[in-house]
Amino acid sequence: MEAKWPAVWEELKVFTPLDDGSKERRYVLDMFPYPSGDLHMGHAEAFAMGDVVSRYWRQLGFDVLHPIGWDSFGLPAENAAIKRNAHPSEWTYANIDTQAESFKRYAISVDWSRRLQTSDPEYYRWTQWLFTRFYQRGLAYRKDSPVNWCPKDQTVLANEQVVNGACERCGTIVTKKSLNQWYFKITDYADRLLDDMDALKGNWPDRVLAMQKNWIGRSEGAHVRFVIEAAGPGKPEQELTVFTTRPDTLYGATFFVVAADAPLALELVTAEHAEALSDYREQVKALSDIERQSTQRTKTGVFTGRYAINPLTGEKLPVWAADYVLADYGTGAIMAVPAHDQRDLDFAKAFGLPVRAVLDTGEEDPAATGTATTGEGTLINSGELNGLSKAEAIPAAIAILEKLGTGEKFVNFRLRDWLLSRQRFWGAPIPIIHCPDCGEVPVPDDQLPVRLPDNLRGESLAPKGTSPLAAAAEWVNVSCPRCGGAAKRDTDTMDTFVDSSWYFLRFVSPQYTDGPFDPAKVNDWMPVGQYVGGVEHAILHLLYARFFTKVIHDMGMLEATEPFSRLLNQGQVLNGGKAMSKSLGNGVDLGQQLDRYGVDAVRLTMVFAGPPEDDVDWADVSPSGSAKFLARAWRLAHSVASATGTDPSTGDAALRSLTHRTIHEAKALLEGHKFNVVVAKLMELVNATRKVIDSGSGPADPAVREAAEAVAILLSLFAPYTAEDMWNVLGHPASVANAGFPQVDESLLVQQSITAIVQIQGKVRDRLEVSPDISEEELRELALASATVQKALDGRGIRTVIVRAPKLVNIVPA
Ligand code: ANZ
Ligand code: ZN
């Protein structure tokens, strides 16, 4: 079967959408793979799930777009190239070919004519084009900034790529380094990225929405400006703004803290305290943000020698520099309210600073207990705010600040701009030319793509802290597109997350040459109706893809404002309850599984193991059981003896009812992604059909054909080879993929009969097939009329008959 059908599917273009508007369109997308070696068990699971949806929608009669491509830029290709003294493209495209062959064998129902690779110049031309458009809109900019630096990979890492202070890729402890870097201004879209999630509720997993929400981290509060007293006679006053979510606690501020590592700390510190601060800053550098904010650590800090004036009270507050305040959140400075903030209280205790409660919450005095009070309550010690609740006092305090001109309402976000430049080779070059006279000049459209040079190989690609492209002199030196003078190309490449932020748009017209996608096609397909992929992409990829979609919408190129209407996160494939890994030696080779059990059995096992969101433990499943079931289904088709066209209404009523109920229930289950239950229902139907063939009305019963056809069509969602073969044996032309979802005869959905048990003194004597609506009288009569019952009574009279319609009759003889 595996040798026969792929060629047929390809020839008939079964999985190529018509794309002519004759049918309603639907777009199914699996997160595209990274070409690291051959496909593994994880791919097998994810793609089996995506294929169920795409094959289901095709059976429903939709014109389905289900494409595939490769996310083919990135570090592993570069590392392999360095090791083998080769070009990264060699490793990349060899792996892609291997994976493509495996995907074809795996029979995923994709339109191969739309295949793309993000490392193809035809693709990255448009990645670069989009970058220039973002640049023109002020959404791509450069700034000097301390960046996360992986000393081993010698590359900059985005915040997201730092996990517990270590490089996500290699585990090396990440350090900070100041570099001039490119950023996308995703923060301009923070509000929309948050607000538009409302429309995704119910269609995306709740936890993904929660993670995105937390990542965006919207906090409502106020900016408050404090005057910092001059450091001495003749010196200037300064001003310092803090972000607070609790302007109601302003009267309770007893000191001030600036992030010790922020330049601000150096600006403020007096000569007397400068050395202490400088020593302290060295200490702070070594710590991760997580360590710095931990509530477990003893608070540390140094006094700056300066004082801030509370704008409401005129009170002088000492300004400290400490590590528990982060330089890159809010304004990098806070007013400390130890009575109502635990970290401030810990700090106050450590340095003997005053604690003043301004909210009476009924709890014990925080100064005495060491526990900050954070509940609701009434304002005290707060002048004009006294007596108000917290909810009333927040806007009241903001109103006062606004009147004084020393503050206003402010919404702060945790979200940072997206650091997109990488000092690596195997990525899309940033299409900017640096001219000594004109500054940054975007590469004109007609000079795109800026191709990677192909003469760099092996060691010359190795990371050195500057981009390997900088070494390619003939590539770097160009004339300025604006003035014609000598200029240099930007030598950084883009984060591969840029490539994957718009690939779903390219799929609507992958060969289009006048833009990133055909404007006449894109709104026909977008948004993606079902996106399938791992939860590891819950934050970054999805956030970036949403951001790109909104910008491209704002450019007037796309109607959709969200890229993915529905999201399904498949579970992981484990072995023995643990993720497969080299070190545990519990890896399972997909190719070997396919050789041993066949593609269909492996696919069916993935789907049958449980709901798609759950992990699949390969040690707990039975691919051989799946193979046996498939063989049973397949034999069913071979047993069918009735000719096509026979009227099924003359067939076995119970089997017909089961067939139609199965179809009916399958539809609801498929909509709810309960694929595993559909498989269970199919197993039941196959068994029932076999019974009718072997011991019922036999293989010529038209209900048997009807059941076998329904099995073939439903099975085509999970086991395409077996289903295609069954369909063929049943006398239909290829392909079962387009057979159409079987029609349900509503009148057959009511269960036609039920088995009533007839007992004599509690002993079962007969079983009667009766209508579920049978009356007590009728059931009593039927039971007493039964020949087996009469024989068992053997002439005895009857004392009582207990009837529980429609299920039970108990006869008590005299
Ligand atoms: C005074 C205050 C009183 C605060 C109080 C809290 C409770 P979220 O909700 O996470 O946005 N904060 C502001 N910038 C900070 C920084 N760079 N590093 C550490 N902490 C910072 O938190 C906002 C609150 O966290 C702010 O409100 C500020 O402390 C602190 F009873 O101001 B608050
Ligand atoms: Zn110039």
UniProtKB/TrEMBL annotation:
ATP binds at K582. A motif ('KMSKS' region) lies at residues 579-583. Residues 415-616 form the Aminoacyl-tRNA synthetase class Ia domain. It is found in: Cytoplasm. InterPro entries: aa-tRNA-synth_I_CS (IPR001412), aa-tRNA-synth_Ia (IPR002300), Leu-tRNA-ligase (IPR002302), Leu_tRNA-synth_edit (IPR025709), M/V/L/I-tRNA-synth_anticd-bd (IPR013155), Methionyl/Leucyl_tRNA_Synth (IPR015413), Rossmann-like_a/b/a_fold (IPR014729), tRNAsynth_Ia_anticodon-bd (IPR009080). Residues 32-172 form the Methionyl/Leucyl tRNA synthetase domain. One of its GO terms (molecular function) is leucine-tRNA ligase activity. The keyword Transcription regulation does not apply. Residues 652-776 form the Methionyl/Valyl/Leucyl/Isoleucyl-tRNA synthetase anticodon-binding domain. A motif ('HIGH' region) lies at residues 33-43. This is Leucine--tRNA ligase.
